[in-house]
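Dear Dr. H.,

I hope your travels went smoothly. While you were away I took the liberty of generating a structure for the chain from your last submission, since the lab meeting agenda had it listed for discussion. I wanted you to have the full record in hand beforehand rather than looking at slides cold. The sequence, exactly as received, is reproduced here:
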Amino acid sequence: MLKMDQKDTDMNEKGVTSSTSGVVVQVREKKGPLRAAIPYMPFPVAVICLFLNTFVPGLGTFVSAFTVLCGARTDLPDRHMCCVFWLNIAAAFIQILTAIVMVGWIMSIFWGMDMVILAISDGYRDQGVPQQV
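The corresponding predicted structure, in token form, is as follows:
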């Protein structure tokens, strides 16, 4: 028993948390510029963009670029609205051009799913409902 207590103490001194310490660790996802340029849209618009991206790769991403010009926020607050718009247009063209080899089509579907996930998380934040992490 004494060895186990000593081991927990050693691990805590090294910064590793044990089940008895009660330390909370927060993990934040680091996003690249293209991924961070995905706008937080209203849920119905995000679902339409997902639908468009599923059947015509890049079309939903192209539509979402215009929501940035309409005031949708992104995870790039330090960049100008036009820069974020062009990042979304670039992502749409990458999806369209690489759809021939299926990569763009798959990327387009995942992009649409990210739009819906961001719309859901933004809705929870606006309504004050606790988010599950």
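Two observations you may find useful: The first helix runs from residue 2 to 13. The chain is about 60% helix and 0% strand.

With kind regards,
E. W.
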